[in-house]
Amino acid sequence: MTELMPEFEIVRPESVNQAVAALTARPASRFLAGGTDLIVNMRRGLVETDTLVDLTGIPELRYIKTGNTGLSIGAGVTLREVTTNPEIRSRYAAIAEACDTIAGPGHRSAATVGGNLCLDTRCIYYNQSHWWRKSNGFCLKYKGDICHVAPAGNRCRAAFCGDLAPALLVHGAEVELAGPGGSRRMPLADLYLEDGDNHLRLEPGEFVVAVHIESQNIQNSSVSAYAKVRHRGAIDFPLAGVAVACRKTDEGAIEVTAALTGTNSRPFLVEGFAPVTPGSDRAAAFMDLEKLVQKQVSPQRTTSTASHYRRLAVSALARRLATNLAVALDRT
Ligand SMILES: Cc1cc2nc3c(=O)[nH]c(=O)nc-3n(C[C@H](O)[C@H](O)[C@H](O)COP(=O)(O)OP(=O)(O)OC[C@H]3O[C@@H](n4cnc5c(N)ncnc54)[C@H](O)[C@@H]3O)c2cc1C
Ligand code: SF4
């Protein structure tokens, strides 16, 4: 059955202030970046708006700043620009590797950092055509009154499936926002909520301007990586994804930070993993990390792949990345 694009108007602000004013003037508008997710969702009738505020013509959003003071990436920078930046690839490998795995080369030339961080959550009962969802009686997230994934519950369990967020999380990123109330910064982890129908902690009219990694979060002796499992080896969302960063302390212990995506309605940092002290059994420690991940993830029946597989796969990936990164640290 053919799905026609609805009618809509595009407003093209040239500054952050103009974008805020445009959204304030028409509160039912939606921000448009690369459009690689939003336009698909509009076509499927999942986004209803008559106005898009296009952020791609705003020079303030299109910069990458690297150096000893840290890393800043404007929300309008494309994923291709991130992957081809040599400094990001050498000092923040997880970020470049995560972007490498997002969609296909054509998508990455248009898709942006801001759009990836603010990606809608996904579910096998939601990312379908209008007629498919209608024949299924819709669902809590859109026009329905029941969740097909967890019918006894009263909240949407759709999964956040952006690849970039966990890679930024393990590097301690902050997010810069602009909106009618001015601008503010917060830890990236705080941008997200565990609610598939309302997973972004953004005030009305607020949007992402940039992400920042401060110099104290960059350690010369740190290494990072990203890996995901997906149905196809290319152009596919993560069924589950994990970023890991490892760093050697002055005492020679290995500090491990891991963050996950695809398993919950938000990307999040794994909690409670103690540094691996010199001389201790590393293999046993990383097995503990695997168990911690298994306990903290909460994959639901939001994909055609079993939740248990996603839990086991992502925890095994976390252990594998940590093991390989620790070996890489030994060589530095
Ligand atoms: C075939 C296919 C495969 C894909 N595979 C993957 C994948 O493997 N991994 C993955 O992560 N994604 C994937 N995607 C989704 C999408 O391509 C990417 O997530 C992309 O980074 C989205 O960025 P965008 O700039 O195109 O966002 P848009 O589509 O323009 O916007 C996405 C959402 O973010 C909002 N938004 C955009 N910019 C901002 C901002 N600065 N502040 C606040 N809100 C904003 C929009 O209003 C919209 O709700 C895939 C898409 C397709 C079509
Ligand atoms: S988790 Fe439930 S409410 Fe959310 S999109 Fe899926 S079926 Fe709908």
Structure description:
The structure is a single chain. The protein has eleven helices and twelve strands. By secondary structure, the protein is an alpha+beta fold. The chain has two domains: 53 residues, Uridine Diphospho-n-acetylenolpyruvylglucosamine Reductase, domain 2; 231 residues, Enolase-like, domain 1. A five-stranded antiparallel sheet has the order 4-5-8-6-7. Strands 9-10-11-12 form a four-stranded antiparallel sheet. A hairpin with a 2-residue loop joins strand 6 and strand 7. Helix 10 packs antiparallel against helix 11. The longest helix has 25 residues. The protein is globular and about 65 Å long. The mean pLDDT is 95. It binds flavin-adenine dinucleotide and iron/sulfur cluster. Flavin-adenine dinucleotide binds next to strand 2, helix 2, helix 6, helix 7 and strand 8. The site of iron/sulfur cluster has 14 residues, from loops.
